[in-house]
Amino acid sequence: MFFTFWSGVFCGKIDFMAIKTIIEPFRIKMVEPITMHTEAERIDYLKAAHYNPFQLSSDQVIIDLLTDSGTSAMSARQWAGMMEGDESYAGSQSWLKMEKAVKDLSGMEYILPTHQGRAAERIIYTLLGGAGKYFFSNTHFDTTRANIEFSGATAIDLPIEEGKNPQLIHPFKGNLDVAALEKHILDVDAQQVSAVILTVTNNSGGGQPVSMQNAREVAAVCAKYNIPFLLDMCRIAENAWFIRQREEGFADVSCYDIAREMMRLADGAVMSSKKDALVNMGGFLALKDPDLAEECKNLLIITEGFTTYGGLSGRDMEAIAIGLEEVFRHDYLEYRIKSTEYLGRKLTELGVPIMQPTGGHAVYVDARTFYDHIPVHEYPGQALVCDLYRVGGIRAVEVGSVMFGKYDEHGAFIPAPMDLVRLAIPRRVYTQSHMEYVAEVFAELVEQKQSSKGYRIIKEPKFLRHFTAWFEEIV
Length: 475
Prior knowledge:
7-stranded mixed β-sheet
């Protein structure tokens, strides 16, 4: 079924599978300086940041792979569109452009603009959630889980078994376990299930894609039990590229049409436009149900702004409308996926264990395996993000037991299923030579990894602790 996976099918005018050098499909018009500093300086910066890279100042970072959210470089067309931004409070022409772009893509009638994705999550999950309610997902991301749990509901991850094994090769490791989904629905009573959320691509699961077949099966289960089916679609273009490459029957279908087909399976969708809309700020909630949309609009007005701007400026909405078109261009997607794959291949050649196969927006290093001498409760992922910064000024993020670990009712530590470190690559920002530098830093870490030490948490909040927790090195 999936054996177009390694076939060399390509989406653009140039087959990058046949060319060793990855050519960025753009020219650089403006440059931003990178501040260089010494390892001794970085050790001091890291200590002052309590060993949490989120607390570093951007000018203390050489290569910033903390996130691909809102860190993209916008195109000349997007910047030109921003000059035409209509800043009217109600009925902005820029809103009409954004609304049309989202409607055309999603097939959903009700579009609510928000200042970013987590704001859309807060609106929909506040209304659907509450004590005693359940949400199921292939893997909830951090803000999704936090908004659900803040409402009093329970978020349960149901990835397929293959998705839990970083070294296993499987074309769609981001899939949701449909059999487990139906079992859990029956166990908790379908009326207590607020929604099933399919995240495409599966960010917390290593940036792995979801197949169209899996989306169809999830939609069918939701329809059977009358449960809302929602898409977290912030990387839907990248997911569509993987479907085109790997899933039977889609090799000749455009990535845009693949995304449209998946969107039409869902009852609603949340998007952080800071990812696959190629902008620095923005998001939206898309819905089919008019009654639910009306409730969401009321909360939108209270928390974000009027229904035709929702916390966004007109120029932001212009950029989103253009970005949603540009992101599906075949030359862009081919470059995007292949450049990420390039870094993954370089690290694999160095003996660095990564989530296989490489995802679309990031390379995920298996820190638990790389630092197998550091116990899980000493956070090997946090050790790796600190070492990356200390040695090379690279900022990355832990996606493991710091982000998703919990404590039981007795205060005992419950680790996450995997301890990964995400190297999220901003869109249209770094060149191949920057990725070569990242690989060289990893070569240094391979040589000295046995000397790395674990960390303990000395201060943490109740929710989303990875953003603000303080750590200290265990000596």
